[in-house]
Amino acid sequence: YIHEIQAQYTQAAKEYARAVELAPNMPYLHLLHGNALKAAGDFDEAILKYQRAAELDPKDPRASAGIGSCYYALENYTKAEEHLKTALESDAGYAAALGQLALVYYTQKRHADAIPYFERAIETEKSTSKLTSYHHALGWSLLAEKRYSQSKEQFNKALELDPKLQGAKDG
Predict the structure, then answer these.
(1) Handedness of CA 74, 78, 79, 81 (dihedral sign)
(2) What's the pLDDT band for 169 if we cut at 50, 70, 90?
(3) What are the two backbone dihedrals, phi and then psi, of residue 88, each rounded to the nearest 5 degrees?
(4) Which of 64, 130, 151, 158 could be cross-linked to 86 through a Cys-Cys bond (beta carbons 3.0 to 4.6 Å apart)?
(5) DSSP three-state, residue 106
(6) What is the pLDDT at residue 2?
(7) Is the CB of residue 74 less than 8 Å from the CB of residue 43?
(8) How far is CA 146 from the centre of its chain?
(9) Average pLDDT, stretch 83-97?
(10) CB contact at 8 A, 66 and 56
(11) In a 10 Å sphere around its CB, with 0-12 CB exposed, 13-18 middle and 19+ buried, how is residue 123 labelled?
(12) Rounded Cα–Cα distance for residues 27 and 40 (Å)
């Protein structure tokens, strides 16, 4: 099944490549091309497309966030952090960059660093699945920092959003 989905994104990337050929100075097309490549698992190529989008529109945080997301997937957390912070310099409330930066810190067990970014991401995120993930990870970060009552509160919020979330039940 996953191969079918990746094949669809690969096909979408080909379509965006054609669109970029027709309008090479439209940063949004480069962003969409990068998104499709990232979804297909082609992170190195996606980074190139996001870089081009950033060159064309340096103030748009989505390109830097896309680069950061790719570096996160490639487990290059230093570069991921750098690019996600660049995205937040353009838009301090950009939920995707806030959440992704929190996950960069969480993955490295830098829980004290992750906590404020999870909190800010939760304030701005609209996606229920991402909110569930953020509450859940925030719960574990708070637990690691021995902030037990706050941790329990976050696990409960995650369970309210997804009652079957086993990790939150474990916390």
Answers:
(1) positive
(2) low
(3) -75, -20
(4) 64
(5) helix
(6) 67
(7) yes
(8) 26
(9) 97
(10) no
(11) exposed
(12) 20
H helix intervals, 23-127: 27-39, 43-56, 61-73, 77-90, 95-107, 111-124
Q: How sure is the predictor about 56, in pLDDT bands with cuts at 50, 70 and 90? A: very high
Residue 17: name the closest of 38, 40, 4, 36 by CA. Answer: 36
C-alpha closest to that of 136 among 162, 117, 98, 104: 162
Other beta carbons less than 10 A from residue 162's beta carbon: 17
Q: Which residue has the tokens 């701005």?
A: 124
| Residue closest to 85 by CA, chosen among 111, 107, 104, 57 | 104
Element holding 20 (H helix, E strand): helix 2-22
d(CA 140, CA 138): 5
pLDDT of amino acid 136: 96
C-beta separation of 167 from 148 below 8 A = no
